[in-house]
Specification:
By secondary structure, the chain is mainly beta. It is built from 4 helices and 46 strands. It has a domain of 113 residues: Copper Amine Oxidase, Chain A, domain 1, CATH 3.30.457. A hairpin with a 4-residue loop joins strand 12 and strand 13.
């Protein structure tokens, strides 16, 4: 009995050391872009596959994840990828396509564990195993992918306009080829609110999402003019009538609804505090309604008129409660505390055509100006902390979210710069899916990038994904009859 007791005591003294040593020797590290990941549950090696906690790995790679307890199913979404796994099953799907796993997801000591290589590669990352130090290295990379445009429009000539916008939950929304609205989900275009949408059988001309999840829609059911717009929110659809006014300029009074005809709205979007804001391409009896209006408390309010020394609206940006407007003469104004004033006069080298805002600071591009201008201390000047390369470039398009800005050049399809959280960089040439001189295999045989084409209609999602329309030209036909096609490309870091 004494010997047994001594053996038990010795075992108790040795075991913690041995377990710690074994744990240290078998520990598997996971590194994403050079950063060691710290998971609540350690990575496990099972039948040659590394398993890691599901929520931690999906979120580390920028995906959202949903757990369904009833069938022990894992649903992860990122960009246009939807991944479905089931505990204890080797069958998974990526965008509804079946995939066979080497090892099934498992629940180990209360943690749901998923195969790391499958998850990383499904989300477009590079996954490499280092046997010497038991480390999985994951690198996220720049990625372009082409999105089918056939469901939202058909185009046979250069310059066709596409109507698209991002929802607050990062779903690309577009206008269908025939009628209604579609969204790009799981790799395909699907009808938006197909059961209840009042515009599903109408020709839609304009859509815009607000930050709080409202969608404004301009739709026509025959005819050329409109007297209302539609607003979608979580509570359903609402019709918003356009303003009704009375004018009298030496003639009998005329009562009419301000409704755009052939050229739609000069401007229709949401302010940064989610107020519907519009400018109408309408004049009557010599009175112009091309100023700025806002819809609050169930009525339209005119903020200013073009008679106040400002031309019609070219672009609009918001900083807190202040509204900045560029008119068609490339002059910049600010409306603050209901008072409209012109910003410092722009000389010939400091004119802006399009505005964007980052961190409460106003910037501008275009208007015959190279590079990016910054409005600071009452004047426009070259934006600081911006590369000389950008300042030497002619810029044509800008799109931005709270964290991301993208600008493009009209001179070269491969000139695109990206700013994330204050840092500017050129989009990697290696990430571009095309070059101007040499056709890429992703462009159909017999087509090439159109002369003078550039990345136009750029749009940025709330979480920093970029879409851009690129024009390609058919070179198989006579020069005078060469048709154009346009393709939508998505850029993101995975």
């Amino acid at each position: 009995m004494k010997r047994i007791c001594l053996f038990i005591i010795a075992l108790c003294l040795i075991t913690p050391y041995n377990l710690a040593a074994a744990s240290s020797e078998n520990k598997i590290n996971v590194v994403i872009n050079g950063v060691i990941q710290k998971f609540d549950a350690p990575a496990q090696l099972k039948n040659g596959s590394v398993l890691v906690p599901m929520r931690a790995i999906f979120e580390s790679l920028g995906a959202s994840v949903e757990w369904k307890q009833d069938n022990q199913q894992i649903i992860a979404r990122k960009d246009f990828e939807t991944i479905v796994l089931t505990v204890s099953s080797k069958k998974a799907t990526i965008n509804n396509q079946n995939v066979e796993l080497n090892v099934a997801p498992q629940i180990i000591y209360g943690s749901t564990m998923v195969p790391l290589r499958f998850v990383g590669e499904a989300l477009g990352a590079d996954v490499k195993w280092s046997e010497s130090d038991k480390t999985v290295n994951i690198s996220r990379k720049e990625k372009w992918e082409r999105i089918d445009l056939s469901e939202i429009t058909s185009t046979t000539q250069y310059g066709t306009s596409y109507i698209m916008d991002w929802s607050p939950d990062n779903i690309l929304t577009g206008v269908a080829t025939t009628t209604g609205i579609v969204q790009y989900i799981d790799g395909e275009w699907k009808q938006f609110d197909a059961e209840y949408s009042p515009v599903k059988d109408m020709k839609v001309n304009h859509i815009k999402w607000s930050q709080d999840g409202k969608l404004v829609v301009v739709a026509r059911n025959g005819g050329v003019g409109v007297d209302h717009v539609w607003q979608y929110s979580k509570s359903g659809w609402e019709k918003i009538n356009l303003p009704r006014v009375t004018v009298q300029m030496g003639k009998p009074p005329k009562d009419f609804i301000i409704g755009p005809t052939s050229n739609d709205f000069l401007y229709l979007d949401w302010s940064n505090d989610n107020v519907l804001t519009a400018s109408f391409n309408v004049s009557e009896y010599g009175v112009s309604f091309m100023g700025l209006w806002q819809y609050t408390d169930n009525k339209w309010n005119e903020l200013y008129t073009v008679q106040e020394g400002i031309g019609y609206v070219g672009d609009v940006a918001y900083i807190n409660k202040d509204i900045y407007i560029v008119d068609h003469l490339l002059r910049t104004f600010v409306l603050e505390n209901n008072v409209l004033r012109k910003l410092s006069s722009n000389d010939s080298e400091n004119k802006t055509e399009k505005l964007f805002v980052q961190n409460g600071q106003l910037f501008g591009i275009g208007g015959g100006t190279q590079g990016i201008l910054k409005y600071h201390n009452g004047k426009w000047s070259r934006g600081d902390k911006i590369s000389t390369e950008i300042h030497k470039a002619w810029l044509a398009e800008v799109a931005y979210s709270k964290t991301t800005v993208v600008v493009t050049s009209p001179n070269d399809i491969n000139l695109m710069w990206l700013q994330t959280r204050g840092n500017w960089s050129k989009v990697s040439d290696k990430a571009l899916p095309f070059t101007f001189k040499e056709p890429n295999t992703k462009i159909p045989d017999g087509y090439r990038i159109a002369e003078g084409a550039y990345a136009n209609q750029v749009s940025v999602s709330p979480n920093g994904k970029i879409v851009s329309v690129i024009t390609v030209q058919d070179i198989r036909t006579d020069l005078s009859a060469r048709p154009f096609k346009q393709y939508l490309w998505l850029y993101h870091v995975v």
